[in-house]
């Protein structure tokens, strides 16, 4: 009910909105929650487990019940939004969640009647023992239909989200009385100050008083102060690195902004959270935290009820009751758990009946509370239902005392210490430059002890501790009875504190209940861990601009534009986009690959190999450095010559391969695999800087400097020769390098091959490569992609690091022992290769596999010695249809493989019985290497 | 996110760095002279302390240099950073 005057709303600006399709009106300054209450709507949602009707419990960020879906159009449907945190805007469309078929009549709420069947640990119990079958058949489908919170949006989010870094001397979190004072003081001292507050209007509990919030004007006028309303500090990282989520909802589509703030000091002024009280039916709509009801009346001029009963464990409840009475509500009674309530006389002077040492035995009502059963307390603190008397009411206020809000303090790895006098956990030691101010530092004074409150409610029925997850005092008592002692285990078993409010509402009551049930004190029981985020956070805020094409950097080869224009199909290789194949119009991918392979074998093909990692290694000790790192003999490599080079890890397993070219005595050009470029440079830098710091050598990544066109095939030389000046191609044998001009551009010309054909890898400055590319295409070269490249190299038995290797493969396993310099004293991994285990003859070795029937095996298939064998002897690493050979081929690693050529093994298949393969040498094409050296 | 003081560049955010394992593990000068057990220890055995830990970092997205840091594994507090070959 809206009061005729007062509140911090602008009555000159009415706003229309809908909830579940019904039209309502509120005012500027309202939240969705206050506007609904003003229109008499109390039933706002259904709980997670039992689908019990629920209304507003709070007026702030801790709201566990009033989770609604906000629909702002396609792609802008946001579930699980707390109605208390949504500013009302014109045309707002909100819907309730977790109801079927309607909010007022919910079939699943029948589960509530079956509540004894869904006890604490229900999930765990049904997973185990004889219930397992029933779980799959009956429970899982049922629970999947009922459970879940809200509907995830399906359309892409059209809005924008921003990220910003900021530095300041003082970050103040919470703009209530203490936060404003701290910000003013820091600003006076000359600090750059950021003051953030999660609510749409800063002020905290100062907003309970009418008029301008004291101190805010001074802060707004201070250029050193950044005041951020609707901004939640949700993560407290090491060394005062705090993340803030600011909600902007700007008309230009900028919705939220992530602030990452590094600050010299933090002042936490996060206040305290009012505790609910446990009694039967404490979750009915109309049962509310006392201070929340006061806030609705004071800030939004809304009376949440006309006739209220206060259940008090703390004096603050009286202040709330008095405030509501002043705004026209009738306080039917104050029931106080304490024997001697300090404010009883003041209440009676206002004509309010006060019953000391009383509690609530139960609430009455359906979708809204209609009354309570007031009962005197027994000696154990529980209400004596036999002596209960009914009191009609439409609002029940709970004043359970206050819990300092120390979630962020805990995230900062601060220790909480139990303070008996304050009846609360208070901030203890913390290593960060962090101070607490106001109610989060000291609490708001003790009331009836939380331990006594919990002890009195252990046997109550349906006394909810965690309203969203439907956890009752009895559930917690049952978990303790079943042997759970650690509060972290009790939490996981019962799910108390695991709802979206993260235990802000019921966390303290939950652990006090566990303490009471186990006969321990609250500090003996301890508290659960507070984890980020402090409140729920949108994925958009975290993702910022990093979505779609900006999700991860995309690297493209110099011929990318040409490839796109000519219909290439691309595949990601790390961050690179590489052309897989260049299918012609109407050509299937596999047909294109076969055509490209044949073109290389018969004439010449052109591959953009620019993605290969390249490292320039320079210095008087460059050769010595490489000699110590790579397995190859490097000193004996003459300028102008190349070697196939292998790099191991110290454990002896293959790490990367490439071509090592010596350009001059003190200069090398080294290639790495496309994916290995960064880690190879990292490893080499490590050895250069930390193991061999005396060697004079410099390593420079030239990956993006050089564009590489790989021209491969019997016609390669005649195609390239007309473009080259300063080098006689015919005089350039296999595995050599020359510096020359190609089309007038200074180039490094490599005579190397990854196909088994006569071939060149022409290195040009990357921006000039497209010119050469188009010239070679014009000369008749066929562009080929990575798919053809894979087939061609497999036909030749060339391995790919990461395909034939998996971190457990040595050069000897691959038959690459010939690469290792025989006379070398040391290189990375040499000592490991000398271990007996690495020399065993039954290690898995590279073999060729020739299918005895028509089709290629599946890559990854296990190799079996005989049908029904239980243990694999190896696996298929590569398998392709070979166009040049007219049959499928495969490579694999097989135990004792080299000694088994001619034998047959079986390769498992996902789609049928194992398939026989003949073990053959791994080189299928031109084993003598005539074409290579042609 | 840690603030790490690169000995060459000064304090920089953690995202500029790459962790590089335990510090002060010298590669044997003559690996061939080392027993299998001692070599395995060099490769795989790490101190993994609860407390002060000397470890290597590289200022990957900065000067590219490797350096050493002393970090407390419980609090993540870095009490010193120093160049290779220097004492903390």
TrEMBL record, chain A:
Residues 171-413 form the FAD/NAD(P)-binding domain. Keywords: Oxidoreductase. Residues 461-545 form the SoxA A3 domain. Residues 560-824 form the GCVT N-terminal domain. InterPro entries: 2Fe-2S-bd_N, FAD/NAD-bd_sf, FAD/NAD-binding_dom, GcvT/YgfZ/DmdA, GcvT/YgfZ_C, GcvT_C, GCVT_N, SoxA_A3. It comes from the Bacteria. Residues 844-926 form the Aminomethyltransferase C-terminal domain. It holds the Pfam family Fer2_4. Belongs to the GcvT family. This is 2Fe-2S iron-sulfur cluster-binding protein.
From TrEMBL, chain B:
It comes from the Bacteria. InterPro entries: SoxD, SoxD_sf. Pfam families: SoxD. This is Sarcosine oxidase subunit delta family protein.
């Amino acid at each position: 009910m809206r009061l005729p005057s007062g509140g911090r709303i602008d009555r000159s600006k009415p706003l229309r909105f809908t909830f579940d399709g019904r039209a309502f009106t509120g005012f500027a300054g309202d939240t969705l929650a206050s506007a609904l209450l003003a229109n008499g709507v109390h039933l706002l949602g259904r709980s997670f487990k039992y689908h019990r009707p629920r209304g507003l419990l709070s007026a702030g960020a801790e709201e566990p019940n009033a989770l609604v879906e906000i629909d702002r159009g396609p792609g802008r449907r946001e579930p699980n939004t707390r109605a208390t945190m949504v500013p009302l805007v014109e045309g707002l469309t909100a819907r309730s969640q977790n109801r079927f078929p309607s909010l007022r009549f919910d079939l699943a709420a029948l589960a509530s009647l079956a509540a004894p069947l869904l006890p604490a640990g229900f999930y765990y119990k049904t997973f185990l023992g004889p219930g397992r079958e029933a779980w799959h058949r009956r429970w899982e489908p049922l629970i999947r239909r009922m459970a879940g919170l809200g509907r995830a949006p399906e359309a892409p989010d059209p809005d924008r989200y921003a990220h910003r870094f900021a530095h300041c001397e003082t970050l103040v979190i919470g703009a209530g009385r203490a936060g404003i004072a701290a910000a003013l003081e820091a600003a006076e001292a000359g600090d750059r100050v950021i003051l953030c507050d999660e609510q749409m209007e800063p002020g905290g509990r100062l907003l309970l008083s009418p008029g301008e919030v004291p101190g805010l004007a001074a802060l707004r006028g201070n250029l050193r102060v950044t005041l951020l309303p609707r901004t939640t500090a949700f993560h407290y990282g090491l060394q005062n690195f705090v993340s803030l989520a600011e909600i902007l909802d700007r008309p230009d589509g900028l919705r939220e902004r992530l602030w990452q703030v590094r600050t010299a000091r933090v002042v936490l002024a996060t206040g305290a959270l009012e505790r609910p009280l446990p009694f039967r039916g404490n979750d009915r709509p109309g049962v509310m935290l006392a201070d929340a009801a006061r806030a609705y009346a004071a800030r939004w001029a809304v009376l949440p009820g006309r006739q209220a009963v206060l259940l008090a464990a703390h004096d603050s409840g009286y202040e709330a009751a008095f405030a509501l009475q002043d705004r026209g509500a009738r306080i039917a009674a104050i029931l106080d758990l304490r024997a001697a309530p300090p404010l009883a006389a003041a209440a009676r002077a206002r004509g309010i009946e006060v019953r000391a040492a009383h509690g609530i035995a139960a609430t009455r009502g359906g979708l809204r509370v209609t009354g309570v059963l007031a009962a005197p307390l027994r000696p154990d603190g529980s209400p004596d239902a036999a002596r209960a008397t009914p009191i009609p009411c439409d609002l029940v206020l709970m004043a359970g005392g206050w819990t300092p809000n120390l979630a962020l303090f805990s995230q900062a790895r601060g220790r909480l210490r139990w303070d008996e006098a304050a009846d609360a956990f208070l901030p203890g030691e913390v290593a960060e430059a962090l101070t607490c101010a106001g109610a989060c530092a000291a609490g708001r004074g003790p009331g009836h002890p939380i331990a006594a409150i919990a002890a009195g409610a252990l046997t109550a029925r349906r006394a909810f501790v965690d309203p969203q997850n439907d956890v009752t005092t009895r559930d917690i008592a049952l978990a303790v009875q079943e042997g759970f002692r650690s509060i972290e285990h009790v939490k996981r078993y019962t799910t108390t504190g695991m709802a979206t409010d993260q235990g802000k509402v019921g966390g303290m009551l939950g652990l006090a209940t566990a303490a009471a049930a186990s006969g321990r004190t609250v500090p003996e029981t301890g508290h659960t861990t507070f984890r980020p985020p402090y409140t729920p956070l949108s994925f958009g805020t975290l993702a910022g601009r990093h979505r779609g094409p900006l999700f991860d950097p995309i690297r493209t080869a110099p011929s990318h534009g040409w490839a796109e224009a000519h219909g290439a199909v691309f595949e990601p290789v790390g961050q690179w986009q590489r052309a897989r194949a260049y299918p012609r119009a109407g050509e299937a991918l596999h047909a294109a690959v076969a055509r490209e392979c044949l073109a290389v074998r018969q004439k010449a093909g052109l591959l953009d190999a620019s993605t290969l990692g390249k490292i320039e290694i320079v210095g008087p000790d460059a050769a010595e450095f490489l000699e110590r790192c790579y397995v190859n003999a490097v000193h004996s490599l003459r300028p102008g010559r190349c070697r196939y080079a292998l790099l191991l890890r110290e454990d002896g397993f293959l790490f990367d391969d490439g071509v090592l070219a010596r350009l001059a005595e003190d200069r090398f050009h080294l290639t790495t695999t496309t994916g290995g470029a960064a880690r190879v440079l990292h490893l080499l830098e490590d050895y250069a800087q930390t193991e061999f710091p005396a060697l004079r050598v410099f390593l420079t990544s030239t990956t993006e400097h050089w564009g590489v066109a790989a021209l491969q095939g019997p016609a390669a030389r005649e195609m390239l020769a007309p473009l080259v000046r300063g080098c006689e191609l015919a005089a350039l044998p296999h595995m050599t390098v020359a510096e020359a001009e190609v089309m007038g551009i200074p180039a490094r010309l490599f005579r190397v091959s990854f196909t088994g054909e006569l071939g060149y890898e022409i290195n040009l400055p990357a921006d000039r490569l497209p010119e050469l590319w188009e010239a070679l295409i014009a000369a008749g070269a066929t562009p080929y992609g990575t798919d053809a490249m894979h087939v061609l190299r497999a036909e030749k038995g060339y391995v790919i690091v990461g395909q034939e290797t998996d971190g457990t493969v040595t050069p000897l396993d691959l038959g690459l022992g010939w690469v290792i310099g025989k006379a070398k004293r040391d290189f990375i991994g040499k000592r490991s290769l000398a271990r007996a285990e690495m020399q065993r003859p039954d290690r898995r070795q590279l073999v060729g596999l020739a299918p005895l029937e028509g089709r290629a095996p599946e890559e990854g298939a296990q190799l079996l010695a005989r049908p029904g064998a239980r243990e694999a002897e190896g696996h298929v690493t590569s398998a392709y249809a070979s166009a040049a050979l007219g049959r499928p081929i495969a490579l694999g690693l097989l135990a004792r493989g080299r000694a088994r050529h001619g034998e047959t093994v079986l390769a498992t298949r996902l789609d049928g019985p194992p398939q026989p393969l003949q073990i053959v040498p791994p080189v299928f094409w031109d084993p003598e290497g005539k074409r290579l050296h042609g | 996110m840690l603030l790490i003081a690169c000995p060459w560049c000064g304090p920089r955010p953690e995202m500029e760095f790459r962790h590089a394992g335990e510090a002060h593990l010298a590669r044997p000068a003559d690996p061939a002279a080392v027993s299998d057990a001692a070599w395995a220890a060099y490769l795989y055995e790490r101190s993994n302390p609860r407390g002060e830990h000397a470890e290597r970092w590289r200022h990957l997205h900065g000067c590219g240099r490797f350096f050493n840091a002393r970090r407390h594994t419980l609090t993540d507090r870095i009490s010193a950073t120093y160049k290779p070959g220097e004492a903390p």
